Amino acid sequence: MNVLNFINDFFSDSANWHGTTGIPHRLLEHVEYSLLALLISAVIGLPIGLFAGHAGRGGYALAAFSTAARALPSFGLLVLMTVWLGEIGTTPAMIPLVALAVAPILVTSYEAIRSVDPAPVDAARGMGMSSAAVLFQVEIPAALPLILSGLRSAAIQVVSTATIAAYIGLGGLGRYIIDGLAQHTYGKVVGGATLVAGLAIVTIGVFYLVERLAVSPGVRRGR
Amino acid sequence: MNAYFDMPSDLQHSYLGLIGLHLREALLPVLFGLVVALPVAQLCVRFKWLYSPVLWVTTVLYAIPSLAFFVVLIDYTGATETTVMIPLTVYSLVLLVPAIVDGVRSVSPDTMAAATAMGFGPVQRYLKVQLPIAVPAIFAGLRLAAVSSISLVSVGTLIGNQGALGNLLADGQFYHRTPLIVTSVVTTALLAILVDGLLVLIQTLLTPWAPRGGKSAGKGAGKSGRPSLLRRRTTSAAREPEPAAARAALEDAVR
């Protein structure tokens, strides 16, 4: 009950709904950091994973790289980057977030292409499609559900971890958690955590919609 | 070297002591998680309707930031190791339940029928057939859980020096000793890689029947010889691509 009371107090306080420290603004900041981190990770991870999967090469290298990326402690990396780079904008926060998100994107996109049914791929080759056409017109559409699930997994981790950006003086929903901890107002902490969890659920919903829209009906039926 | 390995006295631990503490705080929760996850997963296999709600709950729990989890728990368990270990147990549980369920479900009905025909009861069948076949899937989950747990312990430094190696991060900032921060990050990452490698080794020992990566690639045994990053064999019999544990959890959760 204790926790529920805190949540209620936090959300019914109208001061929490206005201005730059209000929930809408913090939420927007959080979404901004998460999207940026996800975008950078996708730009790095998707092409490498997809092409490696298409070529069927570099699986072990990708596995080793993603193990190393996963092993990096996000919070430690954040502190280290802050000390090395100084508190300049969002860069020190982006590095650990990208390190976190790039591994699932890489591995899943590689594995997604590898696990495409070889029969249609061979058929496409037999029809004289170029290597690029096979990748973009056959393999990626067929592998899209898995590719999206990798992105979703990365997105959820990023949304949850982006809270640490507040530790180095940035905004986002982590502000409530870090400030609440410093001020010993647990209502803030619990409220912030609720918002982050809620945002993660919304993220799942968004990916569900994207999947409904982007995945070809034939592929969906086949699964 | 001393700049890197001279521990500030307020930590009350040597470098090796911190490593031991870190491993305990990170790996005990994974062990607890496994102990809880096995029966929960079995329930989900037994009662199929249970799986979807369980996945929803675990997905929501997984989305709670570790720091918030720690802070809320301070009220109940104080600024202690336990406060760090409870959320880590929950996160491990979240990763392990779908891994085990997937693994146990992937046992083919033929194999189960053969076991039954050999006179195995449900318990024997579970221990001698289902669990061993699920080992690769379970270990995929265990590896994710262990690595993320080792990384997350460091956050415990924010709730009153409960972060083992992570405490070096706060001290490094406080005393302006950047080398300590480097030591913390590098040691934590190395521990994660080491534990990950150890789990792979244990998995290989537990599944002597599985094709060894290097050898099978040389033989080129068709599709099943492909290196799988997800540590699952992608045989042509398996129509459905088997996603990694964590991914499967999230994927199933939205259905």
Textual characterization of the structure:
Chain A: Its main location: membrane. The complex is a heterodimer of chains A (223) and B (255). Chain A has one domain: MetI-like (MetI-like fold, Orthogonal Bundle). Chain A is built from ten helices and no strands. With 223 residues, chain A is mainly alpha-helical. Chain A starts with a helix and ends with a helix. The longest helix of chain A is centred in the first third of the chain and has 33 residues. Chain B has a single domain, classed as MetI-like (MetI-like fold, Orthogonal Bundle), CATH 1.10.3720. Chain B starts with a helix and ends with a helix. Chain B is built from eleven helices and no strands. Chain B is 72% helix and 0% strand. Chain B has 255 residues and is mainly alpha-helical. In chain B, helix 2 packs antiparallel against helix 3, helix 5 packs across helix 11 and helix 7 runs antiparallel to helix 9. Chains A and B meet through helix 3, helix 4, helix 5, helix 7 and helix 8 of A and helix 3, helix 4, helix 7, helix 8 and helix 9 of B.
